[in-house]
Amino acid sequence: MTGWDTKLANVLGKSAGKLTKSEKLVTVRDLLDFLPRRYLDINKAGRLSEFEVGEQVVLVATVVSGGARRMRSQPKRRMYQAVIEDADGQRAGLVFFNARGHEQALTPGTTAVFYGKLDSYQGGLQISHPSYSRGDLDAPDLYPGPLMPVYSHVPNVTDAGITRAVSHVLQDLRAQRIPDPVPQEVLDRHHLLSQLDAYQSLHLPIDHAHAARGRRRLRYDEALIVQVALAQRRARYDALRTTARRPLPAGLLERFDQRLPFELTTGQREVSATILAELSRDRPMHRLLQGEVGSGKTLVALRAMLAMVDAGAQAALLAPTEVLAQQHVRSIEAMLGDLAQGGMLGGAEHATRVALLTGSMTKAQKQKALLDIVTGEVGIVVGTHALIQDQVEFADLGLVVVDEQHRFGVEQRDALRMKGAAPPHVLVMTATPIPRTVAMTVFGDMDTSELRELPPGRPPITSHLVPAAKPGWLERTWQRVAEEVSAGHQAYVVCPRIGEEDQATDDESPEWALAADAPQEAGRPIRGVVETLASLRREPALAGLRIEMMHGRMSAADKDAVMAAFSAGDIDVLVSTTVIEVGVDVPNATVMVILDADRFGISQLHQLRGRVGRGSGGGLALLVTDSHTEATLDRLAKVADTTDGFALADLDLELRREGDVLGADQSGRGTHLRLLRLTNSKDVELIELARDDAAQLIAEDPDLAQHPQLAALIAGQVDEERAAFLERG
Ligand code: ADP
Ligand code: MG
Fold first, then answer.
1. Would you tell me which of 309, 444, 587, 601 could form a disulfide with 614, CB atoms 3.0–4.6 Å apart?
2. In this predicted structure, what is the pLDDT of residue 666?
C-alpha cells in the first residue's frame, strides 16, 4: 500500500530525481504541496502589437537570445537579460535583477507564456521580472482550462513537467481510495472540496474560482489541524488538578489594597476578580491578559501574586530581559514598601520578600537567592530565563506570571510550570494587541482577558509626522528634543537598524509587529544607531547634551549600564534600536523620535511610543520619514492620529490584507500555515468554523481513534507552528 508519504521515485520513477534533488520534493505529499505561485491565462494572451506600454500583458513568445552579467551597483549580484520574439516576429527585452534560475529556464529557443508590465526602455519594449510558465503549449489536453500554472523554478524541469507529475500522482492516489482526513459530513456542511479534488483544482484548475475553492479547502485543513491540537491541549489542561489556593483574609493583599493611592479601574477590578476566583479552584488557571502599555497589567499581576503568598505559596514573575526583571523588582518593592521586608527589621507583620534571579548575578548572589527560594523565605521571585534552569527549586510554587509573552516559547513556560509540586496557575501578560486570528490560533489554548481602558488622568501621547525632506523640519525636531531636555526631561531616538555595515535589523528586538509588513521602498538608505549617534553628537541643536546608544549587539552588561544611566538621568538622549520596545519604564522620558518610521509596522510604532509619557507630563512622539509614497504617509498619519492600540491592531490587519491581495504569492513553503494568513482577517471565518468542528470532534473522540488520517496530520505540528510564530517575534 502506498499513500501520501510514498517516495516520489516509487510513483514517477527516475524522473522524480530532479524534483527531489533540487527542491527536496521527496514524497507524494511534498509534490502536491508544491503549489503554483500563480496562473497565466492563455485566453488572455496576445501579440506585442496589441498591447500598449504600461499595460499588464500576457504573451506567448520564444527566447531568441539571453545573457547574464554582474550588476554595476551591486557586484555580487548577477542580472539576466533576454530578448523574446512573438509570432509576429516583434521583439521585447526581458530583465531579471537576479539571474538565478531564469538563466537556466529561459535559454534561447525556449517558448513560454510571459506575464508582466510592458515598459519602454531605451527606445524598445521591455518587461522587468515577468512571470512565465513553460507550460506545454502543444498539449492542450494537459490543462482542463485556459490557466497554466507557474511554479517556482526547478532546474531542468518545466512547469508543464511538474503539472504532468502532479497529474500522475493524483491518479495514483485516487486509485488507492485513501479516506479523506476530514469527515465527509463536515466537508458537506462547509461546502468544501475533497482533499484530492482540492489539490487537483490548485494544480490543474478549470478557472480561477476553481483554484480558489481548492485553496479554501487547504486553508480549512490548516486551521483544523491547529484547532484540533489546541482542543486536545485544552482537554489535557482541563483534566489537570492542582492545589486550590485560598488566600487568608486580612493578609498582604488586603493591606496592599488599603495603601494603594488610587482606585482600580473597572477593568482591573473585573480581571482581578476572575483571576482570584480561578486561583482558588483546583483546576490550574491558564490565562492571557492583554492590555496596552500602562493599562495596569502589572498591578493586576501583583495582586494575584500577593493572593498567592497569602495562601502560603510562592509566585514567580518571568521577564524577557534583565533590565525588565530589575525594573519589576524595583517597582514591586516600591509599591509594597514594608510589606516586602518580611523577616527584616522594620518589616510589616506577615510581610513577604521579593528576590531577583538573573543570569548576570554573581555566584554568591545567585546562591543566596536560590536558598531563599527553596526555603520559602521569598514569596515573590522575579527573573529572566535563569528562573527556568534546573537548579532553581521552589518551596511551593503556586503561580507563574509571564510578562510580554511573545519572547518566551511554550516550552519555556512549560518548564517553569514543572517546578511546582502540583501544576502552578499561569498568567501571561502581553502589551501587544493580538489580532483575533492569532489569539484563536497561537494562544487558542488559553482563556483571555483584556484591559481596554487606561487609568484615568494620564495625559495622552501626542504624535506628529515629520517629513524629513521638508526644509527645517528635522532641525525643528532636534530643537524640540533639546527643549524637553532643558526642561529636565529625557529623549529616545529610535532607528530601524544598528549600523551601516549590517543591513539586518536588531535580532534582539521584539518584532512582533514585523517591520516586514511595511512596504519597503527601494533605494533609500536606512538610518542606523551607530551613524545616528555620531551625527546627533555633531548636531548644533543638541550641543552639550549627553547622548549615548543601546542596541542588541552590545553585551548584556553594557546594555544594563546604559539603561541604568538613562534611568538615573545621566543620559539625556538615548539612541537605540527597538530593544527598548518592551516594557522599559523611564517616566522622565517625554519625547521619542522614530527615524525612518515607515520601516516599522503599525503596532510596533504604537508599542514604541508607549515608552514616553509614562510620567505625569504627557509624551510626544515624532515619526520621521523620507517617504513620499501616499500610502505610507497615510499609514503613518493614522498612527499619529490614533492612540487606541486595539484600533491600530485592526488597522494593521486591514492594511496587510490589502498587501496580501496585491502581492498574492501562495508559494510560501516551510511553515505549516502556508495558505492560512493569521494576519488576514478574512481567515477568521475559517478558523472559527474549524474551532467549532475541532471542539466537537475532540468531545466525541478525544484521541481521534476514529480519525487516524487526521491524527497523523496533527502529530507534532502545532508546537512547531507556535515556535515559528514566536521566533518571528
Ligand atoms: P502595565 O503593566 O500594563 O504597563 P502598570 O501596571 O505598570 O501597567 O501600570 C502603569 C502605571 O500606572 C504604574 O505606575 C501604576 O502604578 C499605575 N497604575 C496602575 N493602575 C492604576 C490605576 N487604577 N489608577 C492610577 N494609576 C494606576
Ligand atoms: Mg508592564
1. 587
2. 26
Residue 300 Cα to ligand 1 middle (Å): 9
CB-based contact 710:228 (threshold 8 Å):
yes
Which helix (H) or strand (E) element contains residue 460?
Answer: none
Q: Judge if the beta carbon of residue 582 lies within 6 A of ligand 1.
A: no
How do residues 102-111 score in pLDDT, each as one tens digit? 888 899 999 9
Which ligand is nearest to the Cα of residue 269, counting in written order? Answer: 1
C-alpha grid cell for residue 487? 526642561
Handedness of CA 272, 275, 277, 279 (dihedral sign): negative
Rounded distance from Cα 654 to ligand 2 centre (Å):
28
Residue whose entry in the numeric block shows the C-alpha cell 488597522? 651
**Which uninterrupted H or E stretch holds 688?**
helix 683-700
What ligand has the least distance to the C-alpha of 332?
1
Indicate whether 659 pLDDT > 90: no
* Nearest in space to 171 (alpha carbons), one of 195, 151, 196, 206: 196
Domains assigned to the chain: 43-136 (2.40.50.140), 252-279+295-430 (3.40.50.300), 461-642 (3.40.50.300)
Amino acid, single-letter form, for residue 618:
G
- 528 in Cβ contact with 497 (< 8 Å): yes
Q: Give this prediction's pTM.
A: 0.68
Probe target for ligand 1 pocket from 263, 264, 299, with the most ligand atoms within 8 Å of CB: 299
Per-residue pLDDT, averaged over 563-572, amounts to: 92
Pairing mode of beta strands 56-70, 91-96: unpaired
Rounded-to-integer distance, Cα 525 and Cα 537, Å: 20
Amino acid at 45: A
Bridge partners of residue 116, in order along the sequence: 57
DSSP letters spanning 175-203: HHTPPPSS-HHHHHHTTPPPHHHHHHHHH
Average predicted confidence (pLDDT) for the chain? 84
Of the pLDDT bands very low, low, confident and very high (cuts 50, 70, 90), residue 407 is low
Atom of ligand 1 nearest to the CA of 265: 23
Cell (9 digits) for 727:
521566533
Amino acid 444 reads G
